[in-house]
Task: structure prediction
Amino acid sequence: MALPEILNGMKVVITNVFKRKETISYPEVRRQPYPRFKGRHILDRHPDGLEKCIGCELCAGACPADAIYVVGAENTPENRFSPGERYAQIYQINYLRCIFCGLCVEACPTEALLMTTEFELSGDSRDELIYTKEQLIVDAPIIRHWPAKTEYSPDRSEKVKIKDGGMVRDARYPENFLPDTRTGKGSE
Amino acid sequence: MTQQQTEMVTVTINGQQVQAENGRLLIDVAEEMGIFVPRFCYHPGMKSVAVCRMCLVKVEGMPKLVPSCSTPVADGMVVETDTPEPAGAQEDMLEFLLINHPLDCPICDRGGECPLQDQTYAHGPGSSRFVEPKRTYEKALDISQLVVLDRERCVLCWRCVRFSDEVAGDRFIQLVDRGSGTQILTFSDEPFDSYFSGNTIQICPVGALTASTYRFVSRPWDLKAAPSVCSYCSVGCPTTNESRGDKLVRVQALPNENVNDFWICDKGRFGFHYVDAKDRLSTPLVRDGDDFRSATWGEAVAAAAEKLGGGKVGVIAGGHLTTEDAFAIQRLARKTIKTPHLDARIQDDGAAYERTLAYSGVVGSTATINDLDGARSIVWVGPDPKEVLPVLYLRLRKAVLDGGAKLIVVSPRRLSLDAFATHVIRCEPGGEANALSALTTTAPVKDDLAAPLVACWSPANPGRETGADLDSLLKVAVEKDARWLVCAPHAGSQGMLDMGVHPALESGYRPIDEPGMDTRAMLEAAAAGELDALIVVGADPISDFPNRNLAQAAMEKVGFSLVIELFPTETARLADVVLPSTAAPEIEGTLTNLERRLQKLEPLTKSPGTAREPWRAMADLARAMDDDWKWTSFADVWAAITKEVPTHQDLDVAALAQEVPPSALQYESGTEEQPGPRGPVVAGPGGQYPKGHRSGAPFKTASWPLSWELRQFEAKQRPGHIPDAPEAPEEKVGAGADAAAPMSGEGFVVYAGRQIYDEGAMVSRSSVLHALSKGAFVELNDEDAKELDVTDGDEVTLTAGNNEMTATVVIADISKGAVFVPYDQKGLRANELLGAGGRVKVAKA
Amino acid sequence: MSRSADAIAEAFEAAGHGAYVESFDRDERMIINMGPVHPATHGVLRLVLELDAETVVSCRPVIGYLHTGMEKECEDQNWRSAITIVTRMDYLAPFFNEHGYSIAVEELLGIEVPKRGQYIRVLISELNRISSHLVWFGTQGLDMGAISAMFYGFREREVILDFYEMVTGLRMNNNYVIPGGVWEDLPDGWRPVVENILGLLPGRIQEYEDLLSENPVFLERTKGIGTITADECGTLSTTGPIARAAGIDWDLRRDMPYGAYPDFEFDVPTATEGDVYARYTVRMEEMRQSVRILGQVVDGMPDGDYKNMDPKLTPPSRSELNRSMEAVIHHFKLVTQGYTVPAGEAYAAVESPRGELGVYAVSDGGTAPYRVHVRDPSFVNLQALPVMVRDGLVADLIASIASVDPVLGGVDR
Result:
């Protein structure tokens, strides 16, 4: 009756059965996000170890979700955290509120606040998802919740074995972040 | 004179024609039309100097651009403010200013509410051409306990210099050096020591002067603001309270040309830390042996109500309570407990405010503060206004120096007013009455007593009879057809009088036939064991009453005592039941200032624990005593006030509500929506952040009403119904009769007076201000000092009765035979000395 | 005595969620509640159906289960950060929300978008049209029993979403198209990725057609089903593929062009039948046309600014922040307070995968929108559903819902 048409459809299905598998067995195997990926934040340090964050609260002012809470304080010669007069005494990001829009990173005048490609943010309680300065500052390793053995490149063309699957430092640095927003050059 | 001022001329600004008073400044006329001319140095509270060159505009016919802040309008003037020529000049000025400005916005406290930022964004260039190194100075100098100076950020607008010179009269900050090295600095070894230094922070158009208490604390978008009134002294300066989260972080002046112009004192600005002091009471306490235990509100009220039911009950109220509290206190006393013994005069024990009733029908002032400006002569009798009523001091100074009024000061010691007074009459302590009686007859003073005259009086000498000098002053005033300012000391004192918290007056200034006991009599009765119960609301008689031992004995001997307080004061520690009270930034309420102006407080932060307003405590007590007032809200209290208080019957309290102010830093700038030279993308000055879920304040852009709206507003603020004055006063109070000051006798007469920063429960909890308190000192006449063989800086012992104290000698202009001691200072509790007869022996230590 | 359908529905609603059954003289009508948690209603759509046996007598869509006040929420943001809200409305076509809003704000500001910015917008929008249609294709097939359609549709969509991630850092709710242009330039290596997608898609679309276009089961369930006429579309303001499938030759990209669309050649596919199958053919052809536009975009991508570089509108560059006071001030003001927009109102519409997506923005001259209203095509098109399904079978209702392709985030806003 309509056999040719049905066979035509079956041909599509059967061809696809023998094509490369499109899914990956997350979390044992994972795909690396692209460098621009907006994941959890880090607070960077200067090469001399001082914090880049100066507690200026611009990130909090830019945040559309009111997810950032910063309280500034004054550096003293004995207790110096950052260059200049001001540092962040309290720095918290509430990941229950964060919408990962990246406006805070754009707002940061010292390139202290950056976004990593880390996206596995789950927790057992609300408190656990309010990240404090200690958790955000860059010396803390980014802990992945599930160890993984294999990782695909962002476009899934390459496959890499990862050794320390539980503890991956994957912070993204300014050079591969915001291209100079005012040069306006196209990047080809 | 007034005729000329109201002559109207027509000017055209940006194509709009407008009628303006001849001689007004172009910048003001433009702002009223909604055209904002950028400015840094111009401030409506001070004279124009036109140094910043930011407000240049084009006036047709003028060869060059003119500064609009120093150009008066003239008929037919055609002005352009936003055409390429003036806009280009403004842009160039900003480029110059930014050359040396440090890249500090992210760390600067002014960031986000900074006129330099706002005007650069609205009028400045978008990018920088300057590539050379910037001029640098040492950053963040602590020029006083309260003010931090960053010279790099300064744009040399002179506002702080002019303020300290013109307005406050403390020349402590000045421009030094020349050319590009010009900088603002205090004189090398003297700190920026002024009672008004905080105003320089508020008027600084950049972050050069910042507050040490607000350093890195918050950002404008974190702040929630509420209009309020300073609850320290009776001037009643309008303020903006600002909180981050639920913590009060900043208090700033709100401009009101009727009260405070643009200023508040440092006590009002920095003295808010008491609100979240660690020892703030948050739960009711009930005595349990030698100690207290916490109780629920209901339990504590029930325990108190049980003891207040019968017997002889006294009620003492403090000076920092609201009008509603005052009304509730007198209602509880007179209607529920049915006792006539209530009083709110503690420090000003026995001050005879009620004597004005015979002359005017009101207890309190007939003049307004604004009357000072139009006065030809002013008489001041009382304590040093700079210490007790600081902003009134500024207004007096302005009236004399700008308004040309003649000031006559009658005082036993040198006051800060003497510096610009026309006549200073140095009298003996207690001899003010005699000195005043002689005013109208003695030349040359009598020649300078010209109408319009404002006579000012404030109770000066705690623990002494003051009725006679007030009477003498009022006689002078009546003779000269003058009005008077009778200044009760604290923010709530006048409200207490209005509401009838007075042994001899009912609410609405109605005299009572059989007056009850005043504070002293109540304390004496309690100390003698004749009082069954004492209610003390918002007061600390042990620290404040001019006889410490008496107050202490009273609290110990009284059958039962209920104290409603913010802190565990010395009085509260001796109470049987303590109820926690609320602070001014936490409540909706009204305060009545020394000119009987009602002003509204809006709530901002939450009070701790179960603390409640005293009026709620009163209503709860009444309910526990089977007299349910059915009060649940502020409006309920006012419904009762308008019904029961004749002077307030037509008052619409809703009309007192003020809008949430814009960022108070920006009060002098308005909205700006006009397209700039670079297209329509310009933001107006004013901390205008998106409203909504942020913890920040919903700052509006509309300019804060400065002129006529406030005048309209004032009509609503002063109670309307003043009873007619009774017939001319009888001559029964002779000038010399009451004024028998004990000038003879052993030792020196103690003349005591409050200092701005003392051991008061509220101000001493602000650590920065407490550090500024002067400590124990005693002022001596130089002749007396010679006799005692002491000089400036020596230690002396003061002995009165069993009390002995040490103090540092200050040689001062004070009448011979008298010593001046500060009232409530660390190491010197004048109320102990005063309690022992008012005389003190002085000996070299 | 028979009661009107409305009265029955009212009685039903008054009674809560139980099934309401009543006997009538002639027949046994049943009021049945479909959704709001039903896999075939594509979200939290609730349909109150009045059934006569298997025949739909009437259908009333009930919405609001996803209402979160997003339009109102925009008023609490500044003009720039409101993008993060509007992008969440029609979550399958986030770039269209952002694009429409941005054009409205640009109109109020009176600014131009540089050519490269416009091209990037077209690039990302047309990819978004394809990714959105692929979800429709998957769910339409799934609802018709062709589960493999779902696999294939989502497989190709994944490739496009990867590209979004590469460009914007996020796979959905991208916050990328902003007033004045786009937030960031295309990253290095974007071209091979897009070319790869463009090379892949035509073949894959052909596979879909092979799978369904002539499949007798599919034809049986879509041809002549859910019909709506051009007149009815006009009356109900229906736009997009539904209207085009009913014979209304109207596409905003061609008829009221915006951005860089006048630069590209493309056809607007139409059909006349107005049934589910016609909508299927129109959407399949639209994907092909999008691929055609994308080819032209990739070839013609100009150099230059990708957003308006007015310093009063765009925060300065990082390098300037370290030396220029003007830059520091403008950065501070722009990121915290945002720019003001002159008072006025503007309406801008873009052709979203579902039809005319219009944004009406009102400014009072401040830094936050006074009002943002979005004319979301899902919301308007949903009105056509009762017309399509009347007197059809319940099973056909499923086909019709899938062909309306509503996104409840857009419906409820």
